[in-house]
Amino acid sequence: MSLAEISNLEKSIIYIRNLNNCPPSYLNDPSRKEFFEIVWLKNEVPLHDLKNDDFETKGDWIYLIPPYRVHQLNKAGKNGELISFKRSVLEGEEKEFLLDLFKIFNVQGEFSCLRLSKETATELASIYKLIEDEYQKAGNNFVLTKALLKVFLLKLIQVKEHEFTSQDVNQKRVYEFLMLLESNYQQVRNTDFYAGKIGISSKRLNQILKEKLDKTGMQIIHDRIILEAKRKIIHSESTIKEIAYELGFSDRPYFSRFFKKQTQQTPEGFQKQARNHIESKFNTLI
């Protein structure tokens, strides 16, 4: 049986579909949260709000959505492609590749988005066609499918890194801050640490972050903690008290006050809202 014939996500490792042919069984499958998702919108408007309205928004967009994200994505009526794969597909890969991959999927926390140029879209389309052709074959070669998927991912890593590093020096500092944050936010929650690693003052770092992201370093750190808290509340079996300790809070009341200050609702209130959201099967990105 080919991977394409397996409808139950729990038994799948790689799942590929045209977005127009993405069945409800995929959208509502509880195993979906375990997959990395690459959602390629073709000649579509983006699914998130853009701060820069200086260019036409309709085009090719790729969303990189990590496992155990807070929100899901409604693909109904969209033109494009979907590639989903489990972390186990990455077993045996070199550490540098895995680090780069995790960075591009998590750099913005909940999801990462790439706007593709026509040239890049053409390059990716040729690689995707090879993946799709192999995937659709009866008794397809998993090793070959995996190898082609890696080529596709390496191209995305190249596009994402070029997007950041081709910008001005302050944009590069923002990128460096976000990468440092991803590795350290649970242990270090002051901007002095991150500024020191980057080689600038905390005041200058805050100025740059305010200019580029319209938030201070501390606000971004708090946002990352809240994102992880929401993920754990929705997807883990831990109690709210356990989650508070896992995130480095000394007690549950302190965590609850922090959570409410940042989100205007208690952890319990968010948990109830999330359960109602899941039960209603309403998939959304933001």
Please characterize this protein's 3D structure.
Strands 1-4-2-3-5 form a five-stranded antiparallel sheet. With 286 residues, it is of the alpha+beta class. The protein has eleven helices and five strands. The two termini are 36 Å apart. It is globular, with a radius of gyration of 20 Å. The model is unreliable at 1-7 and 282-286 (pLDDT under 50). It folds into two domains: 3-165, Jelly Rolls (Sandwich); 169-279, Orthogonal Bundle (Arc Repressor Mutant, subunit A), CATH 1.10.10.60. Helix 3 (118-136) runs antiparallel to helix 4 (142-165) and helix 5 crosses helix 7 (202-213).
How is this fold's topology laid out?
Blueprint: E1 14-18, H1 24-27, E2 35-44, E3 59-65, E4 80-86, H2 95-106, E5 112-116, H3 118-136, H4 142-165, H5 169-184, H6 191-198, H7 202-213, H8 217-235, H9 240-246, H10 252-263, H11 267-279
Antiparallel strand pairs: 1-4, 2-3, 2-4, 3-5
Helix pairs in contact: 2-4, 3-4, 5-6, 5-7, 6-7, 9-10
